[in-house]
Amino acid sequence: MATLNNRFDFVYMFDVQDGNPNGDPDAGNLPRIDAETGMGLVTDVCLKRKVRNYVQIAKGLSDGFDIFIKEKAVLNDEIDKAHDDSEVKGIKDAKEKTAAARRFMCKNYYDIRTFGAVMSTGKNAGQVRGPIQLTFARSVDAVATAEHSITRIAVATPGEAEKQNGENHTMGRKATIPYGLYVCHGFISANLARQTGFSEEDLQLFWEALKNMFDMDRSAARGLMSAQKLVVFKHDSVLGNAPANKLFDLVKVEKNTDSAPRSFKDYNVTIDKDALPSGVTVEELI
């Protein structure tokens, strides 16, 4: 696999219509918001989950593309697989064994060599700092959260049916926002990629996941979520040629309507390519 020789920074935009992009369990699963500004929030953990799910579907947990943090996984059992490997098992020195187990986990688990992991909860496989890091996604404008009453024409138990004399209705609640355009910023370190074995092939799979992961993650609760824009800044060097924040400032998102935005068409996205620093190129992958 080709070694990653360039630093990347990127801006990822996605939107939601009539859905809950990321419920907050500490607030009755209402959409996450910044309490001071009313801007909607989607955590980096939520986005990484969708990337993991896409890779799991696309690669089918094939060699080198297993997922460490997957549904119903027992993490220590996964770490045990590294220590049961013939090459690792034969090592006597504890530090060398941990380092070998760490290499095994990076080689076999896509999400570890991409996002990193703490693997010292059982048999020690060390810690990995992943080359790809994401910020929380924040909506461009304040979002209006709403709760809707919903009805199910069935009940769970005979006792409930008896109390309702056979009417059999169950009331529930559903939380949504009518529309929100979210912006996430990401960073890819070529230096850390070399340490974990994250390759050019892995990077292309990551871009593919950002483009398609919402189509693999549909649910009634999330409404219509869509990837709308992916702007990638590529540096000529491993360490980078400009600060990430200066590059992000070149991407402008402006509302083009006086009414409340209800689609991506209500925004203009521009990139000031004339102000690109030397040694940095930009590409729009979506």
Explain this structure.
By secondary structure, this protein is an alpha+beta fold. Helices cover 29% and strands 31% of the residues. It has helices at residues 44-59, 75-84, 86-89, 94-108, 110-115, 158-163, 190-196, 200-212, 244-248, and strands at residues 8-19, 23-24, 30-31, 39-42, 116-118, 127-129, 132-134, 137-142, 146-152, 170-188, 224-235, 251-255, 267-271, 280-284. The strands form four sheets. Strands 1, 4, 7, 8, 9, 10, 11 and 14 form an eight-stranded antiparallel β-sheet that branches. A two-stranded antiparallel ribbon has the order 2-3. A two-stranded antiparallel ribbon has the order 5-6. It is built from nine helices and 14 strands. A hairpin with an 8-residue loop joins strand 5 and strand 6 (127-129). It is flat, with a radius of gyration of 22 Å. The protein has one domain.
Number of strands: 14
Report the portion of residues in β strands: 25-35%
Distance between the termini: 25 Å
State the share of residues found in helices, binned by percent: 25-40%
Order of helices and strands: EEEEHHHHHEEEEEHEHHEHEEE
Q: Main beta sheet, described?
A: 8 strands, antiparallel
Count of DSSP-assigned helices: 9
Pick out the low-confidence regions.
Answer: none
Radius of gyration: 22 Å
Oligomer state of the chains in this structure: single chain
Q: Please, what is the average pLDDT?
A: 92
Classify the secondary structure makeup into a structural class: alpha+beta
* Number of separate structural domains: 1
Global outline: flat
